[in-house]
Write a structure and sequence with these properties.
Layout lengths: L1 H10 L7 H9 L2 H8 L5 H11 L1 H18 L2
Length: 74
Amino acid sequence: VTINVGLAIFNLIPVPPLDGSKILMGLLPKPQAMTYARLEPYGFIVLLVLIFSGITEILIFPIIELLVHLLLGA
Protein backbone atom coordinates (compact mmCIF):
# COMPACT_ATOMS: atom_id res chain seq x y z
CA VAL A 1 0.00 0.00 0.00
CA THR A 2 2.78 2.41 0.93
CA ILE A 3 4.61 1.90 -2.37
CA ASN A 4 1.44 2.39 -4.42
CA VAL A 5 0.47 5.54 -2.53
CA GLY A 6 4.05 6.83 -2.87
CA LEU A 7 4.10 6.26 -6.61
CA ALA A 8 0.68 7.88 -7.03
CA ILE A 9 1.69 10.99 -5.09
CA PHE A 10 5.06 11.18 -6.86
CA ASN A 11 3.31 10.99 -10.24
CA LEU A 12 1.14 13.98 -9.30
CA ILE A 13 4.15 16.32 -9.00
CA PRO A 14 3.58 19.05 -11.62
CA VAL A 15 6.89 18.57 -13.45
CA PRO A 16 6.48 17.95 -17.21
CA PRO A 17 7.39 14.27 -17.58
CA LEU A 18 4.88 13.35 -14.86
CA ASP A 19 1.07 13.27 -15.03
CA GLY A 20 0.72 16.13 -12.56
CA SER A 21 1.96 18.51 -15.24
CA LYS A 22 -0.82 17.41 -17.61
CA ILE A 23 -3.40 18.04 -14.89
CA LEU A 24 -1.93 21.47 -14.17
CA MET A 25 -1.87 22.38 -17.88
CA GLY A 26 -5.53 21.39 -18.11
CA LEU A 27 -6.42 23.69 -15.22
CA LEU A 28 -4.40 26.70 -16.36
CA PRO A 29 -5.76 29.27 -18.82
CA LYS A 30 -4.52 28.74 -22.38
CA PRO A 31 -1.73 31.39 -22.40
CA GLN A 32 -0.25 30.19 -19.10
CA ALA A 33 -0.57 26.54 -20.17
CA MET A 34 1.36 27.26 -23.37
CA THR A 35 4.09 29.00 -21.37
CA TYR A 36 4.22 26.09 -18.91
CA ALA A 37 4.41 23.60 -21.81
CA ARG A 38 7.67 25.22 -22.93
CA LEU A 39 9.31 23.78 -19.79
CA GLU A 40 8.77 20.22 -21.05
CA PRO A 41 12.26 19.77 -22.59
CA TYR A 42 13.82 20.67 -19.22
CA GLY A 43 11.38 18.72 -17.06
CA PHE A 44 13.55 15.65 -16.59
CA ILE A 45 16.46 17.79 -15.41
CA VAL A 46 14.18 19.67 -13.01
CA LEU A 47 12.85 16.35 -11.72
CA LEU A 48 16.36 15.02 -11.10
CA VAL A 49 17.33 18.20 -9.25
CA LEU A 50 14.22 17.92 -7.05
CA ILE A 51 14.95 14.28 -6.26
CA PHE A 52 18.66 14.66 -5.53
CA SER A 53 18.23 17.84 -3.50
CA GLY A 54 15.76 16.11 -1.18
CA ILE A 55 12.91 18.52 -1.84
CA THR A 56 10.63 15.70 -3.00
CA GLU A 57 11.20 13.83 0.26
CA ILE A 58 10.27 16.88 2.32
CA LEU A 59 7.10 17.47 0.31
CA ILE A 60 5.97 13.93 -0.44
CA PHE A 61 6.69 11.82 2.67
CA PRO A 62 4.23 13.63 4.97
CA ILE A 63 1.47 13.23 2.37
CA ILE A 64 2.29 9.54 1.90
CA GLU A 65 2.29 8.94 5.65
CA LEU A 66 -1.05 10.69 6.04
CA LEU A 67 -2.71 8.74 3.24
CA VAL A 68 -1.33 5.40 4.41
CA HIS A 69 -2.52 6.19 7.94
CA LEU A 70 -5.98 7.05 6.61
CA LEU A 71 -6.15 3.94 4.41
CA LEU A 72 -4.77 1.42 6.89
CA GLY A 73 -5.76 3.06 10.14
CA ALA A 74 -2.33 2.21 11.53
